[in-house]
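2024-03-11 09:14:02 INFO queue: dequeued item Oligopeptide ABC transporter substrate-binding protein, len=603
2024-03-11 09:14:02 INFO validating residues
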Amino acid sequence: MVKKKLALSAMAVLATLSLAACSSSSSKKSSSGANDNASVKLSESYNNKAKSTTAANNTTLKVAEPNDSPFQGISDPVLASNAEDSDVFAPGGSDSLFNVDKNYKIIDGGLANLRLSRKNNTATITLRKDAKWSNGDPVTAKDVEYPYEVIANKKTTSQQYSSDYARIKGMAAYHSGKAKTISGITFPDGQKGRKVVIHYSSISPSMKFSGNSFLWTTVEPYEYIKNVPIAKLAASKQVRKSPIFTGPYKLDKVVEGESTTWSPNKYYYGKPPKIKHISINVVSSNNIDKAIQSKKYDFTAPGGVMHGTDYKQLKNLKNYKMVGSAALSYDYFGFNVGHYDTKTGKNVMDKNSKMANKNLRQAMMYALNLDQVTKKFGYGMTWRANTLIPPIFTKYWDSSEKGFPLNLKKAKQLLNEAGYKKRNGSKWRSDPNGKKLTIYFGAMTGTSAQAAEYQDYLQQWHKIGLNVQLTGGKTMEMNSFYSTLQSPKQSKIDVYAAAWGLSSEPTPTQLYGVEAPYNMGHFVSKENTKLMNEMNSEKAWNDSYRTKIFKKWQAYMNEQAAVAPGSFAYTWSPVNKRVKGYNIDPSNNEFWSNLSLTSTKIQ
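2024-03-11 09:14:37 INFO prediction written
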C-alpha cells in the first residue's frame, strides 16, 4: 500500500569544501551496508516525566514539515503520492482501518478488525460500531470498498494500482473498464452496514501486515465524495479544501502549500486528544535548523526529512531530545530504460534506450563514492545502502549483498567491455555505435550541501569518461522533477537521484511492477515479475522460503542496476522538552492522542 515519493533525504550531506576528500579512486573499506555503519543510537520515544498542565493543553502544538517545495495538498491517502502530504494531514489519522503491533502486524482494536481465511481465500473487514467521520457521518462498508474503485478506475489519478490487486475477483475486469463494479467485494449486511468480504483467487502472507499490496487499509468517505468524478477527485474541494477524517483531529484550515491547522475531532472513537490546537508548517531545509534553535517548533513531522547536517547542528541543544529509528525509506538512483504504455496500463522496456545497457548502469554506480560520503558527512545518521530493501525489515534485508562500493577500475572495465570508448582523441566516451553520448542527470533542488553532492556525482562520472550533465543545467524543483519522471515517455532525464518512503510491508510490486505507475524508470523483466510474484505465492506462507525469495530479488536488482541503492538512514526529530508522550514505535497507534504539553511556551 501507500508508497511515497520523498525529497532526497539521507545522502544530502556533502559540504562543498570537502569534495576533493570524497573523490578517491577506491574505497579503503567496502562496507556491506549494515546498519552498524550508523554510529548514532537513538530512542524511539521521549520519556518526559514532567507533568502536563491544563493551561499548556489549551495552547498550540507547533510542528515543522522540512521541505523545499510547497506540499501538493492532496489529503486522500489513495490519491496522495508525496510523503509531505501525508505528513501535513497526519493528525487526521490517515483514515487507517487497522491497529498494528511493533512489527506492523495487523491487530484488533482499530477502526476495524480483520479476519483472513486461507480456506475460503477471503479477507473479512468488520467496522467498529462507533466509527464516524469528523463531520459526524458513520463510516460504512461502502467506505471500505470505495478505495478499490478509486485505485483501479481507468480515469483515476491514483498511483497505487499494481498487478497484485488482480487477485481480487473482478478487479481486473473493473480495471480494464469491462465491468462497472468489483464483483469480488461484497457487503453481507449492505453498503451502509459494517462488514465487507473481499474474495481473492488466493490470499497472501503479506496480508497479515499493514501496508501490503493486496489489501487497501484506509477508508474513503463515499457519501461525501460520491458526486465527484474519480478523475477530478484529487482537485476537488472535498480533498483539498475541506477534507474529513476518522482520526483524533479534524482539519480547521489549509493554507495551500504552506500549512494545516487542527483541533480535536469530537467524533473520534479512540483516546480523546489532549492538545487543543495543532499547526503544521512547511519550513525549508536551509531554515529548519535556525527555526529549531530559536524554539519556533516543538518537533519536526515524524517521518519528515532531516539530514545528517541537521543532526550535527541540533544534537547538543539542551531543550530538545533527539528521537528516531531506522527509516522506512531509502535513497536510490533510477535509470530511464523505457516508457509507460497508457493504452495497456503497463511499463515497457526499450532495448534501444540510452540507458538500456546494464554495463553502463553498473559502471555509473561503481563510480560513486557513497561509502565515504555517508561516513564522513552523514554524522552517524546515514550509511551506504546495499540493496533496495532497508534494514528495518530485518527478516528480509540481505546484509551479505555488497551493492556498489566505489571501484573506478571496475567501472572503466565494464564500459570498455560494452564498447563505450573514447574515440578520435575525445575527452568523453561515445556509445558502442560510435555516437556522441551525453547523459542527463535529474536532481531535486535542496540545500547547498545537496548541490555540492550532485557536483561530486558528476565529478566521479567524469572520471570514468562519461559526459554527464544536470538536466537543463541545474537542479529541479521537487514537483517539477516528479512531474517529468512520471510522464508516460520522457527523454529529459536519463539517470536520477530520488527517495522512497515505503509502506510497512516490503513487497515491491507497487514500486517496480509491470503495471505500477510508480515504476518511473520503467524497468520490466520476466524474472523481476516472477520473483515479486513468488514473494506472495502459496509457498511464501513458509517464511523461510519467502525470505529466500526476497534475498534473491535483492541480488537480481543489484545485478540489473536499473534501480540502484543509494543510502539508508535514520528517521529522526528534535523534540522539545515541553512535549510529553512522543513515541514513534509502530505499536503506538494513538501517536497524536498520546501527546500532551507541560508548558504554555516552547522551552
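2024-03-11 09:14:37 INFO annotate: Residues 543-560 form the longest helix (18 residues).
2024-03-11 09:14:38 INFO item closed
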